[in-house]
Amino acid sequence: MARTTTLYRDIRAQLLRARDPVSATELASLLRVNRTTIVRALPELGDELLTMGATRSTRYLLRRAVRNVGNRWPIYRIDETGQASQWAELEAVHERGWRINWAAEEPAWAHFFQENNGLWSGFPFFLAEARPQGFLGRLIAARIARMLALPEDLRHWRDEDVLVYLDMAGDDLPGNLVVGESTLRHALAGAAELSPERVIREEDRYLRYPQSAMEIAMNAPGSSAGGEQPKFLAHVQHCDGGLHAVLVKFSAPIEQDTGRRWADLLACEFHAHEVLAQTGLATGGARLLDAGGRRFLEVPRFDRHGASGRSGVVSLESLTTALDGLPRDWNDGAEMLWRRGLINDESRSTIRALHAFGELIGNSDMHAGNLAVFLDDAMPLCVTPSYDMLPMLWAPGSQGEILNRPFTPAPPLPGYRDEWRQASEWADAFWLRVMDDPRITVDFRAQAEMARGVVQRLRARI
Fold first, then answer.
1. What range does the domain containing 33 cover?
2. How far apart are CA 34 and CA 24, in angstroms?
3. pTM flag (> 0.90)
4. What are the tens digits of pLDDT across the range 20-62?
5. Which of 110, 290, 310, 323 could form a disulfide with 106 if both were Cys (CB 3.0 to 4.6 A apart)?
């Protein structure tokens, strides 16, 4: 018994030190015993032992427990009809590593990101994507941090914290993935029977939206950093009976200078959305309404379908960070994905056009988190409808000051001229719509007239 206990401890110590999976033969050599002895002793490690491969190719690692939520978790995927199926299993291994065990054939893109035996050196990007972030993320963290013993500041969340959140509170995340059986049950139950509090009738929006905005304004943790727009999620029951998942942005009270400027910008976002929807690059059906002294922009969610359907989505930021690091801009990120065949020529051209359009309407906030692709098992990946496209160049300053910053879009590089010319037509139509909208303040209509002139002069030169 003593020898068996000692051997068990020695094997465990070697596996803990191992950075890569090891074989029984390698363990036998390290511990100076025969291979058969190692094979017989390994089962003593129980559920802690992770076995990969078969016969003489079998390799071993140790799983690690993540707090009180275990060491492996099923990952489910909910399709556009609301049906769930197991997609993979996540396992935590030592040295802060992770392993994905695919339920069926691995996705066509998996080999770009994982190592041999399904190992990942970092947290898989498609799960990291679901971590709370931005304005809504801070609201989530403030609500659940103490309940789940997580840091209240999202900047301090580690991968293990994200996993705890996914496993215990991730039933309604962006995209279509759900981690853990209990969380899946909550997701399916919530979709099957939406509570009256979660459904807003179309005619009630003028009452319910201001109530939601006031509640958020009273309870939001800190200010909206970096000009980030306050928002909330909702399900709207249209008069025709259709149920639509939407994201609703709102301004500060319009009686305030800052509120008036954000109201202008929300109207601009509505027009940008409409222009792009006409080209097929944004989801149709955005709505703009004034109620309770605020302006609201309601945008349909492209990752939701009816009451229960979902689509997989991943941002350019998550994809490229998992490959080569954060791109300089959207075009640089598109090149990263295109070179590997993750996107095709059409998607690369679409991203170029969207980037040019953003520059020509003064969108100074086109970071890599504001562009995404649909994520399924096949390649190439397709660009999602555009979102968060608005002239952030004119957003209020950090202290709420109204700043009419210079608008100096650059001409295109030679290889981007075709997409730029197309985008310049969209930009001209956008600025004309803004100039003609009586909901826009006189001050900002003057900015729009100036900006359209800049775009027209630039178009004449190209």
1. 2-62
2. 9
3. yes
4. 899 999 999 989 999 998 988 899 899 999 998 887 789 999 9
5. 110
